[in-house]
Amino acid sequence: MYLLLAVALGAIATAAVVLLTTPVPPGADVVASAEVTATASCTGGGSDTVLVAGPGGPVSRDLDGCGSPVGTRVLVNLAPGGAVPARVALAGTRAGEASPTTAVLALAVAALLAGGLAAAAVRARSRRDPEAPQG
Where are the alpha helices (DSSP H) in 2-134? Predict the structure, then answer.
């Protein structure tokens, strides 16, 4: 059981180090403020329209999302260099990505849960077997 706990904690620590030391690609965090000007139903496969505060002034673009109420302020990703692409994505919400803060928080919670479960298992085992090491 201690081996399993050590492997789990090692995996969590390794993932935390990787997340904290992986460099952000240049231009990956270029964002701009936008306001939803038209909304589309998510069941019809449509996309919302936003007014993006671009470097050359506000521009209207399709958003890679749907169902946002008109007037909602959102952050959108810009192309490297700050250009507004033809279709914009919500900042930090692209499929398969999470913010590093969320990932580190999730790892911390997982580590605490793993430690609590290990402590409970050791305590339960020591109650059943008085010869088991106390810890």
Answer: 2-21, 100-128
- Report the alpha-carbon distance of residue 39 to residue 22 in Å, rounded: 36
Is the whole model's pTM more than 0.70, yes or no?
no
Q: What band does 98 get if pLDDT is binned at 50, 70 and 90?
A: low
Estimate the crossing angle of helix 100-128 against helix 2-21, to 10 degrees: 170
Listed residue (3, 6, 123) closest to 135, CA to CA = 123
Residue 45 DSSP label: T
Distance CA 47, CA 59 (A): 16
> Which tokens is 48 given?
């919302």
In sequence order, which residues have a C-beta less than 8 Å from that of residue 53 and are 6 or more positions away?
A: 32, 33, 34
